[in-house]
Write a structure and sequence with these properties.
The protein is α+β, with helices and mostly antiparallel strands. About 50% of the residues lie in helices and about 10% in strands. Helix 1 (about 5-25) packs parallel to helix 5 and helix 3 (about 110-140) packs antiparallel against helix 5. The relative contact order is 0.16.
């Protein structure tokens, strides 16, 4: 083979191997999230028993309405939804000071995830047959290769490139969930899978505000408790 042929063969093989490594590599460990709920004060005097009967704690001065609440935005990472998720995260953090907004990938269904891992193996198998089918078929007991093999072999470089492109397209489709799900304190607030569209910024702000207002109690003196 000359250099052009080696390049045409090497690029698809390199990209397929990269896909395999990325698919089967273990995910990175999750980053520890700071906790806003538990603060240990070992030198504080013991609390009187009667104060434990009231479960609500008055927030310190300067804390926003979102303090202690968590918003989870689970989105389809392979659908290029990250930009929208980051925009919503910044908007919510600016609107509700003290709120914790967590972004995470929403994986597709289990059958699609399994098929997405099978696709690279099929890609490698087809490319291997195109390159060395005359040696592979006798090893599995097939004396005369099928007609489709000769069709692929007639334009093997085009066949390998088509196999790689089609496999990547199919893999991307199987890895996509199309989700953009928003949770407030583990309660579903908005679902793109149900609504079929993204939430508007004002719409999402109102939904989160209503959820947070339900967990806020205002006493008779006008002090806010959460």
């Amino acid at each position: 083979m000359d250099r052009v042929q080696l390049l045409l063969v090497g690029i698809p093989l390199f990209l397929v191997c990269s896909d395999l490594i990325n698919l089967f590599a273990p995910p990175p460990p999750p980053k520890p999230r700071p906790s806003h709920h538990h603060h240990h004060h070992p030198h504080n005097p013991p609390i009187a028993p009667e104060t434990l009967e009231f479960p609500l704690q008055k927030p310190a001065a300067g804390r926003g309405i979102g303090y202690g609440s968590t918003i989870n935005i689970n989105f389809c990472a392979s659908c290029s939804y990250r930009g929208t998720a980051v925009t919503m995260k910044k908007m919510l953090e600016a609107t509700f000071p003290g709120i914790d907004v967590v972004l995470a990938n929403y994986p597709p269904a289990l059958p699609k995830r399994i098929l997405a891992k099978v696709v690279p193996a099929v890609q490698m198998g087809v490319i291997g047959i195109i390159m060395a089918g005359e040696q592979i078929f006798p090893m599995v007991g097939i004396v005369n290769p099928p007609q489709w093999y000769y069709s692929l072999r007639a334009n093997r470089f085009g066949s390998m490139a088509s196999t790689w492109l089609l496999g990547n397209f199919l893999q991307s489709f199987l890895q996509s969930s199309g989700a953009f799900e928003v949770y407030c304190n583990d309660e579903l607030v908005y679902s793109k899978l149900k609504e079929g569209r993204f939430p508007g910024e004002i719409e999402l702000k109102d939904l989160i505000g209503k959820k947070l207002s339900r967990s806020v109690v205002v006493d008779g003196l006008g002090d806010m408790w959460s």
